[in-house]
User: Fold these one by one.
Assistant:
Number 1:
Amino acid sequence: MAEVFPWQDALWQQLAGRAQHAHAYLLHGPAGIGKRALAERLMARLLCQRPDGLDACGQCKSCLLLQAGSHPDNYVLEPEEADKAIKVDQVRDLVSFVVQTAQLGGRKVVLIEPVESMNINAANALLKSLEEPSGNTVLLLVSHQPSRLLPTIKSRCVQQACPLPSQAVSLQWLSHALPECTEEERGELLTLAAGSPLAAVSLQAQGVREQRALVVEGVKKLLKQQQSPTQLAESWNSIPLLLLFDWFCDWSSLVLRYQLTQDEQGLGLQDMRKVVQYLAQKSSQPKVLSIQDWILAQRQKVLSKANLNRVLLLEALLVQWAALPAQN
């Protein structure tokens, strides 16, 4: 049974309580808030032969087959490799499943996640199934970035926004999920995860706080000219490139924000506050805007899995970062 998260209660009542189900739902919202679990719970409920109120019974033949991963009327479509595209051939296989009759005599349910990882040919191949769903088929589309979807796909689904839980609810849940962390550490992890509690757990598992401490120390040494961009770029080899670009993007935004507002409450996490304040006071605004544009462009390349020379890219970033404070 998919995990049930407390912040999804109202959403679940609304979804599972529908008298009639749409042929396609688009569950969208930030990554790391449990959309996949919500979709799996709905899939189990839609396939169940004897639903127990709003939930699947967990005991009927359909539920047992689903739990064993061998339900003939259930189809999960995701990239063959993590972070890769869903290909058109995969969607064609799905389309041939959709046109078949349900083997257990009930519904067929398809789960696609993340739907934005379909390339354009795959997305067009899916449209046919969304336009003319065959028999009693429900498609559950899960998206972390709905802005990347074709408008024609979005318009053929019942769109269900899955909001970020409040900070209080997330911290309450994290106190059970990460009992080994202090309250302050959980707060830092939630900030680093942009408010997504499941992403916070995942970041803790990959040692993000240790990685960040290493990067922050490196940035301070860079600005004091105690370490060169080349040395730093090589020493950060084990840290995911996207994480590095997320942090530098965040720091450049904080520098800009402080230049515009002088608000000391808006300096971000404690570890970089003094650095952000220093850079805001010593850097020209055009320079900050320029490096921010560059960081966003490179981050987009990292996201699109472009073939990048990691060390050269980081060196270019650090050379510009070191040059931010103007020498008077």
Number 2:
Amino acid sequence: MEDQTALLAELNASWFASGLEPETAMRLAGLARSYSAEPGQELFREGDPSELFGVVIRGRIALRTLVPERGPITILTIEPGDVFGWSTVVPPYRSTSSATAIEPLEAIVFDAAGIRAAMRSDCQLALALYPRIMVAVSRRLNATRLQLLDLFAAEQVKTW
């Protein structure tokens, strides 16, 4: 999957890059590289500097957050076509959750320094990507809200 044509085809098949202007999609593919991880491999930790932004091609990723007195709780499972590591392009560039591969993972990733520099120097790229990144952020917020509702509901059952 390493050549740019293959990376471009994989990106275009994802909701994240689907419909990008051809030149923008080519620019994005030029920044990309393949990435793989085995089940159980941690991709990043909550609170650490965010160094990896990507699109899942095959496999799934569990996003987890640490809940006091409960330990790590999965707040969302990232499926093929979806993005992970959006914190890489949103200040203060710190991971807002931990991510672990739960199936053999193949992804297309963008290193932090490269994608940030490209978005700073290419307004068209930034204009195309930021709304898509906001969709991912919105999904995470909604999933977190639902998870919190589940946690509070479980607490209510215990107190009755």
